[in-house]
Amino acid sequence: MPGAAAYPFEPKSTRSLTPGDYWAVPLADGSFACGRVLQTEGDHLPTPSRTFFGGLHAWLGTSAPTSEQVAGATFVDFGIMHIRAIVRVGERVLGNRPLEADGIELPLMLDAHGGPTARVVRGAQTLRTARREEWGTLPVLGFWGYDFIQTLAEKMARDRGALR
Asked: Are 96 and 3 in contact, with CB atoms under 8 Å apart?
């Protein structure tokens, strides 16, 4: 987004998103997880104006996340998401914490095609054809439904057993 964004805001397309933007993922018990925009461009984005590469932080809180709270948080998983993962689940982008501030680099993954045409991707961007010895050694790039991030966050909360 050109210039400084005014947070919070409800994104209408990925043009308004910037890597590092984060949003609250509300959970059934009233707590929150945190989603993060990691990449807004890439050749694996099926609808570039509506999809982005993002992740779910390994973070839980009793209130919506802040930049300070998610500082240094790792990720549970990554995937291609539709903008509705923000507006239907968390309603709006709460703020931005630059990825560089936490040393976050886009993960290496395999695309979902598999076999001899499988490609190594960094986030949603193809790097090269995968070597046979790489098959099964890298995670596979997933395409998430609108509320998958919430389902994943609920599982993370159950697995932890309690807020930390």
From this structure: no
